[in-house]
Amino acid sequence: MATFADLDELYNIELSAFPQNRQASREVLADRMKLFGKGFFVLLVDGKIVAFSTALLLSNANSLEAIDKTDKEVNSQNGKIYYLRSLAVGKENQSKGYGKLLIAHHLKNAKKMKSERVVFTCVPEVEEYYVRLGFTRLTDFKPFHGNSEALWEVPKSIYAKTH
Questions:
Q1: 5-9, 16-20, 81-85, 143-147 — which is least confidently predicted?
Q2: DSSP string, 30-61
Q3: Domain architecture of the chain: domains with CATH
Q4: For the CA atoms of the chain, what is the radius of gyration?
Q5: With 90 as the cut, is the pLDDT of residue 60 above it?
Q6: Is the pLDDT assigned to residue 163 strictly greater than 80?
Q7: How many Cβ atoms sit within 10 Å of the Cβ of residue 2?
Q8: Are 49 and 88 a contacting pair, CB within 8 Å?
Q9: 2 and 40 in contact (C-beta within 8 Å)?
Q10: How confident is the model at residue 146 (pLDDT cuts 50, 70, 90)?
């Protein structure tokens, strides 16, 4: 799990992983850690953070509009929907399977928390990645948090196999 001492390193990965218009600020990363620290994970290689991912719990994820709010507004401590909020792998560490490892860890965490569903959003540029993993797009791409994104779900057939 991430700690507040990791924020500078996490922020540098965020800057490397995303175009400027999609980067979370250091403050936003800290807020996500406060909101749902049990869903904020780092991946270490040789003692160095190379990737991280964040999650929230939701009560409603039936559309993009339902989650097109601030993290604080959508997070629900009693929510049964596990929302994989972000996945950041530093540019120099992409295509090494680190994102897949973090997703697998989130699926285990969601199952442990007895979440009913796992959802996430993504931009068109990375859609192929999630299709290869067998995930399902639920909505068309629409304006969302300043980007064009779609709501996705981890199919129950994949989620059920999580150990």
A1: 143-147
A2: HHHHHH-GGG-EEEEETTEEEEEEEEEEES--
A3: 4-160 (3.40.630.30)
A4: 15
A5: yes
A6: no
A7: 21
A8: no
A9: yes
A10: confident
What is the DSSP code string of 84-111? Answer: EEEEEE-GGGTTSSHHHHHHHHHHHHHH
Once rounded to an integer, what is the mean pLDDT over residues 38-56?
97
Question: What one-letter code names the amino acid at 68?
Answer: D
Euclidean distance between CA atoms 44 and 163, whole angstroms: 21
pLDDT in the model for residue 6: 96
| Element holding 126 (H helix, E strand) | none
**Dihedral of CA 71/74/77/79: which sign?**
negative
Please tell me the distance from the alpha carbon of residue 135 to that of residue 156, in angstroms, as a whole number.
Answer: 10
Do 115 and 39 touch, CB atoms closer than 8 A? no
Looking at the DSSP bridge assignments, the partners of residue 86 are 54
Backbone angles phi, psi at 11, to 5 degrees: -65, -40
Give the list of residues 6+ apart from residue 46 with CB closer than 8 angstroms, or none.
Answer: none
Q: In the numeric block, which tokens belong to residue 153?
A: 């779900």
Question: Rounded to whole angstroms, what are the CA distances from 125 to 21, 23, 59, 60, 121?
Answer: 14, 15, 28, 26, 12
Is the pLDDT at 130 greater than 90, yes or no?
Answer: yes
Residue 63: DSSP 8-state: S
